[in-house]
Design brief:
Elements (H helix, E strand, L loop, with lengths): L33 H14 L4 H7 L4 H8 L7 H10 L13
């Protein structure tokens, strides 16, 4: 289709700068250990015949906290790791055996 002679042509050029930031400083990415830890906690408490609610009774947090740990949604603190291990009658290091 021809343009009328009195109409100007406009060209629009759009550039977008994309910056990628390497947040791990060149190290090999590490998989999130929370889901694996959570599955191991679930396995241990079921082996011992404990429900999430029973396990939570040994800990200060609510039963929902135990479920969130099991689903890998919580970044569990050291004090809670020790309390959880104590409630499951294992050493804290044993909770991490499946992570290697």
């Amino acid at each position: 289709m021809a343009r009328p002679e009195n109409q100007a042509s406009i060209t629009l050029i759009v550039c977008r700068l994309i910056v990628v930031i390497n947040s791990n400083n060149g190290r090999v990415p590490i998989a999130d250990p929370r889901p694996s830890l959570g599955m191991h906690v679930r396995e241990l408490h079921l082996q011992r015949g404990l429900s999430q609610e029973n396990l939570a009774e040994f800990l200060d947090p609510h039963r929902n906290y135990v479920g969130e740990v099991e689903r890998g949604e919580r970044n569990i603190a050291r004090l809670n790791i020790v309390a959880l291990a104590d409630a499951l009658c294992v050493k804290p290091a044993e909770l991490f055996e499946t992570l290697s």
